[in-house]
TrEMBL record:
InterPro entries: KR_dom (IPR057326), NAD(P)-bd_dom_sf (IPR036291), Sc_DH/Rdtase_CS (IPR020904), SDR_fam (IPR002347). Keywords: Oxidoreductase. The keyword Oxidoreductase applies. Transmembrane segments: none annotated. GO terms for molecular function: oxidoreductase activity. SUPFAM superfamilies: NAD(P)-binding Rossmann-fold domains. Residues 5-202 form the Ketoreductase domain. This is SDR family NAD(P)-dependent oxidoreductase. Belongs to the short-chain dehydrogenases/reductases (SDR) family.
Amino acid sequence: MTAERIALVTGANRGLGRNAALALAARGVRVVVTHRGDADGAEETARRVHAAGGTAAVVRLDISDVSSFGAFASELSGLLDRWGASRLDIVVNNAGVGVFGPLETVTTNDFDTVFGTNVRGTFFLIQSLVPMLAKGARVINVSSSLTRHTSPATSVYSASKAAVEALSRTLAAELGPRDIRVNSIAPGPTATDFNGGAMRDDAGMRRGLAAQTALGRVGEPEEIGDAIDTLASEGLHWMTAQRIEVSGGALL
Ligand SMILES: NC(=O)c1ccc[n+]([C@@H]2O[C@H](COP(=O)([O-])OP(=O)(O)OC[C@H]3O[C@@H](n4cnc5c(N)ncnc54)[C@H](OP(=O)(O)O)[C@@H]3O)[C@@H](O)[C@H]2O)c1
């Protein structure tokens, strides 16, 4: 049954989304790789899936453009038809943005971009996709360790991820009777392009963040990809409405 499953991963053209797509594909899951404009990055993710013997297709999706979700769902439906399937088994709401700065520097535009993408986009994408979800489907929403611990200049971003966790729990209650699980995963600082690549490229920041973790280092994107794949695994079908932090034991 595992080989038949199909996952959609948003923002899978790079970073944690790409690694989630690769980890799922390595388990035999077919992957819909979405991107908001970086078609080359998404094609590279699909190329790596194919090179490893998996199946992937690329579809454009800007999660801040809720008005496009109807057309996206139709395109997705056509793709599932071509794959001889009618339902999605896994949705990874990974695409997200951060704007970081102290209170005085944050603009209304920053606020709307972060909430429009991370919260509004995630919520309405789930709403659009629910009719296509299989019995037993998993929705995995990417949050952040910043919802549990506090760091100055992260207020809007961490509030948006707290909202993602809150809606995950409520949707778990609403969708449970339809046999759909909704969980959130909260990565700690991980070495990607995120926040200007600081967690990957800024040695001082890496040292500082590493010192705050039980494991003594920041995360690598493959480790979050593996964690997302594990959350989607069929063995975890009794788990829903949970927040799973994958942060190397940050700020315990
Ligand atoms: N890295 C970390 O330390 C860390 C920690 C905790 C949580 N997270 C979360 O993990 C997720 C992935 O982050 P990352 O580290 O992989 O960062 P990243 O390298 O900056 O990737 C962000 C991804 O989100 C996509 N995206 C942003 N806005 C979008 C939109 N409107 N529509 C569709 N896609 C959009 C980006 O697309 P483009 O390539 O087109 O920009 C990109 O694919 C985010 O939700 C982030 O908040 C990251």
